[in-house]
């Protein structure tokens, strides 16, 4: 599978389609037109009708120009989206200037563009739009046309009320902007982290499928290889007595290589997922799982203390690439942060099976312990070297991915620090209920061994 740049997920998640802005603006144009027409002809209020519709028409012209210039699927950059939202704020301010300024109850619509920006744009763009909205609201509090009213009267709201509306716009812009940005950011980060997890799973499943592909290739290659074997035997039979030493040597070499290929294909065929022994080959004992987990670190010379013991018969499980990836990720972190030694203990009882990974490093920070399992919570400082390039490395996704993959198997993951006064370090415990851990595993004994009953004593003969 090709490498995936996870940083691109964050960029693409923010970019909204132009069609979204155009549709929202058509909705605003419809509402503004209905309000102006209803006030002018329904209520009989003396509005500057022509000027109001000229301001509304500018939004319509912009929408038509965007529709003609760009396709509906076009995604806006942050700057372009901010400029379009700034235009909407200015257009609304111009319409409010003609219809009473902040005395107009529709002045609270200043919050709408800021809210959209908070959910889709970076915080600095939202801050700029919020300042623009508050600045124009301040200007409208001081300078505006009179609020349209019935012909037989005139209404002038006190400045204290207008100040209250300005304060409401200011606080509403700040509160809704921060709140919407926080909620949208958490949702976006969670979606990106889940996407990264799915990429990891797909990569591991791709590797686990290679056995099946190899078995299928063995089946397909079996027929032409058999033909080559028959032709080789015929050539040896016909040319053997009269062949020169060089030709005889080549024929013998060809037969040996064909036999070798048949042996290799036989091994690959035994891994076929449709074969009778496929489930047995996919089953691994708990101690073997622990050894398979620590083998790569031993090859790199890491200091490891490994033990595996328990009460009763040893449990076995089906091979799970996701679980192995998650455990390997946790072990990699333990090795990276350990000062000298890392211990991996596998234990089992009649009810539970668990693996405990312990290091003698600085331990987990309080933030990690409080937010364990959330995406983008990293245990690495920015200047700490990485042990290798993995999916999501350095983004704070490692623990999230490991927890997600492990818990999909029915396990529970617990993080803690060493509680002894004279020791320090981090402890990660992964535990399963035994019946869940052994689910789908094939017994490690061969059922064919007990098919034939033992011979009776009278049938025993001396050798």
UniProtKB/TrEMBL annotation:
Organism: Methylobacterium tardum
SUPFAM superfamilies in the cross-refs: ATPase domain of HSP90 chaperone/DNA topoisomerase II/histidine kinase, Homodimeric domain of signal transducing histidine kinase
Keywords recorded for this protein, A-Z: ATP-binding, Cell membrane, Kinase, Membrane, Nucleotide-binding, Phosphoprotein, Transferase, Transmembrane, Transmembrane helix
Transmembrane segments: 24-42, 48-68, 104-121, 128-147, 159-181
InterPro entries given in the database record: 2C_sensor_his_kinase (IPR050980), HATPase_C_sf (IPR036890), HATPase_dom (IPR003594), His_kinase_dom (IPR005467), HisK_dim/P_dom (IPR003661), HisK_dim/P_sf (IPR036097), RegB (IPR047770), Sig_transdc_His_kin-like_C (IPR004358)
PANTHER family in UniProt: SENSOR PROTEIN CREC, SENSOR PROTEIN RSTB
The protein's Enzyme Commission number: 2.7.13.3
Limits of the Histidine kinase domain: 216-436
Keyword Repeat: no
Protein name in the entry: histidine kinase
Pfam family, one: HATPase_c
Annotated catalysed reactions: ATP + protein L-histidine = ADP + protein N-phospho-L-histidine
Gene3D superfamilies: 1.10.287.130, Histidine kinase-like ATPase, C-terminal domain (3.30.565.10)
